[in-house]
Amino acid sequence: MIKKSKLQGEFFMQGDIACAEGAIAAGCRFFGGYPITPASEIAERMAYRLPLLDGVFLQYEDEIGSIAGILGASWAGAKSMTATSGPGISLMNENIGLGIMMEAPCVIVNVQRGSPSTGLPTSWAQSDMMQARWGSHGDYGTIALCPNSSQEFFDLTITAFNYAEKYRLPVFILADALVGHMTEKVVIPPNDKLTVVDRKYTSKKPSEYLPYEYGADLVPEFAKAGDGYRYHTTGLTHDKRGYPVMTEECQKECVTRLINKINNHADDIILLEERDIEDADVVVVSYGITSRSILPAIKTAKKKGIKVGYLRLITVWPFPEKRIRELAGRVNGFVVTEINMGQIALEVERCGHPAKTKLVPHPGGGMHKNEDILDAINEVARG
Amino acid sequence: MGKSQVKTADATGEDVRHPMEHLLRMDRMPHIWCPGCGLGTDVSTFAEGLRLAGKDYDKVAVVSGIGCTGRVAGYINLDSYHTTHGRAIPFATGLKLVNRDLTVVVFSGDGDLFAIGGNHLIHAARRNVDINVICVNNFIYGMTGGQNAPTTPLTAYSSTAPYGNYEQPFNLVGIAAAAGASFVARWTTAHVHQLSDSIARAVNKKGFCFIEIISPCATVFARKNKGGTGLDLLNEFYRRSVVDHDADPTKIPIGLDGKIVCGEFRNEDKNTFWENVKNGIKEKVAQKDNWEAEQSKRKKVLYKKIVDHS
Lengths: 383, 310
Hints:
The complex is a heterodimer. Chain A is an alpha/beta fold.
């Protein structure tokens, strides 16, 4: 029988499928997407599941249509999602900016593959980290989460929806082809064990409602299309009424709020996994699939007597600046392992000064060699 | 929102209100459109069309892209979305498919809908998504200063065609019809009654409805092509127009001279995307459930046989 509700129990599940099931568990009922390796399985699963949950699956004509569509769906009140890979994100970036500016909650999954350009369609990389931060033009705050297993792909998809709803913005999930295509155990808990957050709908009367009026949390209250509020929203710089205002003052208020509504809540948004960090001399910083492949090297280094800490960034954006600065004061340095030529390492270097930051890069399509990671740990341990 | 803050007086000193004030954001007046532009009339005609259609205004949403016509969403006192260049249609598709009680109208220009957004238009028409697209065709990019559009007639001047346009223009109603739209009409800004009637029919009709409005751009198209004022250009469009509802929409391109064939060229009933989804699920899920039940029954029989043999 075709399953017509949220799953529950233990499964042997592919990462991409777990992501789709996480979205369904979070209440996602609109998926707009376009086929692309290695993210297509998410669309396929949603096509199979959503129509039976009275949701909508639409395969758009391209990724630009997909992102525009999930923004429209979001304004109609649905939790909405799209899933793609690097080339698709490149196409989506303009409308990701629209989502940021209009403050439309939605989730964008990037199952990263080797790049630039068409790159390695069937193989992995972590090379879109900075694209997720700065991909759309202009200054804005953003949230990105990095799963390292099928289970976490499920869990973080729910978290991504919760953040999107709470802070009203498109939230990224930065997975990669390995996490997306790996099949492993996933436990889906019953509904009452899941935390699902919904956006704050306004309780004001239409005559009193201003779509971009905000309080201390800097997040405006939401009103969906068709509820009689007759509001205006635009990608132009706008005031509290949502009307375009082309002044320096309005630009300042608009842009700083979009940044501060994320920065002010960084402590709530940032998720980290730390092991043996309190007395560490060297902290190995990793995220996503790399956080699993580096474990043997860390074990070997420890056997040699080096005090190695493990810091995994589950939230990559906003960057955990505060934590890196705290650690920088008392460690020799950081080793950053990532499957790109140095992206998050730049952030660690920025916040980790004067402690040393040593990058262990990888161009994609493979994993770091244990010796390379060990060499880096040794180098930083020596000081 | 959208309450009147603008009061004007006529020669006798009496308060004069815009007859469509209830559908306009009067606190945003004056608008940014040039004197002589057709867009003011196009918006009034749209408002009249909604009134004729008897729509609940709380259940109508307007989505625009970028450009002069892209600003329509900002002046209409309805739920309104001013999106990115070319992407109004996929945005509107998401809005409509989630809130299926809404009447969703995309109001945008020829460059927005047929150049940068052309792919979305043909695919939305192909799917027969239940949205309405009003395309204001002024033959040029107005907002950016008069550059060539996919509708600029051959040999017409624009700021990026200083020796006259070398490109064949699109015939918009032809494309919409060929891509599968349920309803296809074309009028000029001068045909206010016919246009509001067509809009009223379109918003009450299911499926992808497309209306082209041939509208004067006084500031750039008229100036570059010696068309006189906006009113002169409008008169010229009206003079050249011929109403022929039976015309084949794929065979009525618009040149710099010659006829502008107007009318309602297509009004068909066919299943929308959402109707196809619902019908598909009803049949296919039942079939699949039966098939799977059958399979599991057969497996049990087979298993029983194996057990019996052993």
